[in-house]
């Protein structure tokens, strides 16, 4: 009888197949997660800045290289159509970033520790890249001395808007006219100074508007030094809050339990229209923090859920057995 080779068992056939499958999967994973360099450009940056534009999709990355001396300040700000786009700054050939935009924001002014070449790397965050999202952007890269008004270059703690004609001062989401307008301010309005910088030929200042809490960037030529506004007076037995000065204080109806409401002292820190933290001291001495976002109460520092309805301009809020009546003006001002 002729010799018949033994039929391979399922296990014998599956081991090499499994190894090949794992290797292929690993290679695909590495290929999908590895950034694809779409553009590399050397930028001759100066104090006025160089404006560059680009578009990215998925794992694509753009890199801009800048030669600098020790002690110079590398200034970068990014405007984009996709909030998942960010930039990092790192020494050429280095692995440790000097600035990480995904956690630090879209504006950077970095004093450089040593002479050499530094890379501004623009890319989508990992989850957005995996979804194949795209983004258009503009990035302004400057090299020189970034002028911060709060401590770094002197400058007042408070500004007043002055010299605006034919309308209101635009408050923008970033330091330049290519950023969208997020608010308006009238002559005489007072703003907290959070630092200024040069973007192109214009001085832009990061501000927070007193009272409303609107935050953003305004053109510095419309700002003049002014005195600090009068702080809101916290009533006796009033709330401590989170350490930030209250934009307004007063009393609202509330109760720790039951249907009978009493006057309870409150303080509010605003963060633009519809957004605020309200601290209330209940009649039993408990201090409750209630967070408003998008024009409605969304959470509190309590284990119970926040529920509410609204009658006119009054929020009627329940947190477990607790009850509150908070006018809309407390949240928005006015």
Automatic annotation (TrEMBL):
Lineage: Bacteria, Pseudomonadati, Pseudomonadota, Alphaproteobacteria, Rhodobacterales
Gene3D superfamilies, sorted: 2.60.120.380, SH3 Domains (2.30.30.40)
Domain of life: Bacteria
Leader sequence segment: 1-38
InterPro entries on file: SH3-like_bac-type
Domain spans labelled SH3b: 168-223
Identification of the protein by name: SH3 domain-containing protein
Keyword Protein biosynthesis in record: no
Keywords: Signal
Pfam families reported for this sequence: SH3_3
């Amino acid at each position: 009888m002729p010799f018949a080779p033994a039929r391979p068992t399922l296990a014998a056939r599956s081991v090499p197949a499994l190894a090949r499958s794992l290797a292929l999967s690993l290679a695909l994973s590495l290929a999908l997660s590895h950034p694809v360099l779409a553009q590399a450009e050397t930028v001759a940056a100066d104090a006025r800045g160089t404006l560059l534009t680009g578009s990215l999709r998925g794992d694509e990355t753009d890199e801009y290289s800048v030669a600098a001396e020790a002690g110079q300040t590398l200034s970068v700000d990014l405007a984009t159509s996709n909030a998942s786009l960010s930039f990092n700054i790192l020494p050429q050939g280095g692995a440790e970033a000097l600035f990480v935009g995904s956690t630090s924001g879209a504006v950077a002014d970095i004093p450089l520790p040593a002479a050499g070449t530094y890379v501004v790397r623009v890319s989508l965050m990992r989850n957005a890249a995996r979804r194949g999202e795209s983004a258009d952007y503009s990035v302004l890269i400057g090299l020189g001395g970034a002028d911060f008004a709060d401590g770094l270059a002197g400058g007042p703690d408070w500004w007043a808007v002055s010299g605006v004609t034919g309308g209101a001062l635009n408050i923008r989401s970033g330091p330049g006219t290519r950023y969208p307008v997020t608010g308006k301010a009238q002559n005489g309005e007072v703003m907290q100074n959070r630092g200024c910088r040069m973007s192109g030929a214009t001085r832009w200042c990061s501000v927070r508007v007193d009272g409303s809490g609107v935050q953003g960037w305004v053109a510095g030529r419309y700002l003049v030094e002014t005195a600090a506004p009068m702080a809101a007076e916290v009533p006796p037995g009033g709330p401590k809050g989170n350490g930030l000065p209250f934009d307004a204080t007063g009393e609202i109806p509330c109760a720790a339990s039951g249907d009978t409401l009493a006057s309870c002292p409150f303080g509010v820190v605003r963060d633009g229209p519809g957004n605020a933290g309200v601290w209330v001291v209940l009649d039993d001495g408990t201090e409750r923090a209630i967070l408003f976002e998008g024009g409605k109460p969304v959470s509190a520092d309590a284990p119970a859920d926040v529920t509410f309805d609204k009658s006119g301009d009054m929020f009627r809020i329940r947190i477990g057995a607790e009850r509150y009546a908070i006018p809309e003006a407390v949240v928005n001002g006015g």
